[in-house]
Amino acid sequence: MASVNHHFKVDFTARHTVKASHASVPPNYTLPLSNLDLLAGRSSVAIFCAYQKPEFRDFSSLVAAILASLAETLNHYFPLSGRLVTNPTTDEPEILCNNEGVEVAEAHAHIDLGSLDFYDLTNSLQQNLVPTSQEMPLRIQVTSFNCGGFSIAWSIDHALADATSFVMFLASWSEIVQTKALSMPPDHRRSIIRPRSPLKFSPSIDNTFIKFTIEDVVNMVPMTGYDISLKRMFFIQGSHLNRLQQQASKGGRRATKIEAFSAYLWKILAESIKESDDIQSCKMGWLVEGRRWMVSQNVTNLFGNLLSMAVGEADIQELKQAKMSQIASIAHDAIAEASSDEHFTNLIDWVEFNRPGMFLAKILAGFEGPAIVISSALGLPVKQMDFGFGSPVFGTQYTTIARLGAGYVGTQPTGLGDGSWLVFTILWPELVKALETDPNHVFKPVDKVSIEETMGIKFTSSKVEKMKGRAVIGDDSVEKRKPRL
Fold first, then answer.
1. How far is CA 143 from CA 60, 133, 308, in A?
2. How far apart are the C-alpha atoms of 470 and 383, rounded to whole Å?
3. Which Gene Ontology MF annotations are present (predicted)?
4. Are 213 and 93 contacting, i.e. CB atoms less than 8 angstroms apart?
5. Tens of pLDDT along the chain (485 residues)?
6. Of 163, 378, 344, 374, which Cα lies nearest the Cα of 259?
7. In sequence order, what are the residues at sequence separation of 6 or more whose Cβ sits closer than 8 angstroms to the Cβ of residue 13?
């Protein structure tokens, strides 16, 4: 088995501009961002997938097939082929649907896939394997490796789409390659996310969200001075999650796995904070998917952002002494407050009242002291991301943003079918150490042993093999599901 290599060269061999093959909108058609798009910020959201060497394709023909199918997919997702521009009247961003195209970079990494560090992603994916969206709504990179395997990385501007929309785009692309009808045709009518008249919202929303600029997002520094920049991947066994769920359940109420996981993580966070920091409380945030709750508006197939932030706060000393079930109840109550149609309609009205501008959850900005935000992508269907050359053997959510104002923990399923998770994190050194040294050993760093022996993947110097027909991560059922809490 190849050893981990932190220093490898990536050569960019070609750059392609792919446009929708049959543009379906008038030239220079513009789409305004919805009020919930304006809450999403401008960070890049990425997905990285690694594939074994195709049996009947060389790399050049593989890239050609990707370019052709992408052009057809953009016919249905035309905003991604446009550009984000500033409206001179409102001074707010909008989508110019001019079919200027998506950039697809072609590259070669002088390393075997089996030598990539899947634990320390800062020293692997950050090294020219994942593109940034920046001026383009979508960028894609296809990279070949010495072993014959390859990777595809997609990076999208969060202002255009949340995780569910991102997955919708990739699922549609896969269906087009397989000549299937689109199971979820995208709805680009952002006008359906409309405020009420008269506006109505709770002043408490001011406690969660603030107006922000792009410069603020780029230069986020947490109030505590913590360096929230370590990008790490962990594996959590299904049996450990079941045990946490048992500990977090009490009486007649059964905690969800997310609530139980949150309780454990919140407790570790509290225990990692030194008394010398003179911090009295810490917060936990949860991204809440709105498609499940916005029953008053038909948003099921909407391509855009439908997210809110639930926030809970607790005293550090009380967290250290509390039982798991008590902390899980705090998490449950916080999530419940943001899980309703009324909450999302209030949020839409609040943004309308405070426009023009862009907005962000305070907890993400680093103003709230030590905090962690949890994003659940437990329905992320990575196994279905077959673009004509098989399913991925490894995949993860990712971001190219260098550091955050709060810790980030993204959960996603493995493909083992036993309830186990892969967890992508952006944390600070003290918290990473606390998680890795906890005697319960819930967070296990992902390494070659855990990938090859525990997760059912075989990396060799010449190829990447799937053991027992299982991919590392993906939807555990054939039925498509949406990432949500």
1. 11, 17, 34
2. 9
3. acyltransferase activity, transferring groups other than amino-acyl groups
4. no
5. 345 666 799 999 999 999 999 978 888 899 999 999 999 887 888 999 999 998 878 999 999 999 999 999 999 999 999 999 999 998 889 999 999 999 999 999 999 988 889 999 988 887 689 988 667 999 999 999 999 999 999 999 999 999 999 999 999 999 999 999 999 999 999 889 999 999 999 988 999 999 887 666 666 555 556 889 999 999 999 999 999 999 999 878 899 999 999 999 999 999 999 876 788 999 999 999 999 999 888 899 999 999 999 999 999 999 999 999 999 999 999 999 999 999 999 999 999 999 998 898 999 888 777 899 999 876 667 777 889 988 888 888 898 888 888 999 999 988 778 899 999 999 999 999 999 999 999 999 997 555 655 545 555 544 445 443 333 433 333 233 333 33
6. 374
7. 106, 107, 108
Q: Are 408 and 373 in contact (CB under 8 A)?
A: yes
Structure token pair of residue 221: 């520094």
Residue type, 97: C
Q: Which domains does the chain have, with CATH numbers?
A: 10-184 (3.30.559.10), 207-456 (3.30.559.10)
Phi, psi of 415 (to 5 degrees): -100, 20
What pTM value is reported for the model?
0.89
* SS3 label, residue 286: strand
Across 36-162, where does the E strand assignment appear? Answer: 44-51, 83-86, 93-97, 102-109, 138-145, 150-157
Nearest 10 degrees: Cα torsion 109, 110, 114, 117: -70
Spacing of C-alpha 402 from chain mean position: 15
